[in-house]
Specification:
mainly alpha, 9 helices, 67% helix
Length: 185
């Protein structure tokens, strides 16, 4: 791992405000959902009737996308069927992980930032999740030259991506307060 990233994680973790962790985790989850959504679409297109994987059901394609995201972020699925699918299709999941940098290159900055933020949150809570960063680096999904964003910058970028993906409503600015003259009318 890039020494600057490791130093940033070590320096930021103690000063990380615990009140922001749930909001950060929500942004991380949003990136995971967008990755899942785009990966599911990619798998569905590639595993069409004309491919070697045409025998996979729609449910299996969804399970595969979920297993890939879970593997990348070091989490287990709540659905035991996804975990069973992951155990039985380890090579296929690894193949999909290796293909992410080519198939979903536009998400690399978000994956990089979300994995780093996950590591910060985990570190603050006493969880060791550096292996997720190392896996992402090995797969070409971690842009080590990318600066670690401020939490607010990360959350705003994810919010914008989420709105573009149709997962969240776009942010709007608050209406300006009425002046005295406008309230009298």
């Amino acid at each position: 791992m890039n020494k600057a990233v490791q130093n940033a994680i070590e320096e930021a973790a103690p000063a990380f405000d615990s009140k922001i962790i749930p909001v950060m985790r929500e942004a991380i989850t949003t990136v995971q959902m967008i990755l899942f959504q785009r990966l599911k679409e990619s798998i569905s297109q590639r595993y069409s009737e004309n491919s070697a994987y045409s025998d996979y059901s729609e449910e299996d394609k969804i399970r595969l996308a979920g297993a890939v995201v879970n593997n990348l972020y070091g989490s287990d699925a709540l659905d035991p069927q996804v975990n069973l699918f992951a155990r039985n299709h380890r090579e296929l999941i690894e193949e999909e992980l290796r293909g992410l940098p080519l198939r979903l290159a536009e998400l690399i900055p978000y994956i990089t930032d979300s994995l780093r933020m996950q590591t910060l949150c985990d570190n603050h809570e006493g969880v060791h999740s550096i292996p997720c960063l190392l896996l992402a680096k090995e797969l070409g999904l971690l842009d080590e030259e990318r600066e670690l964003p401020l939490p607010s910058t990360f959350m705003l970028a994810v919010r914008k991506l989420g709105a573009e993906s149709g997962l969240v409503n776009p942010m709007t600015s608050a209406p300006q307060p009425l002046t005295e003259q406008e309230t009298e009318e």
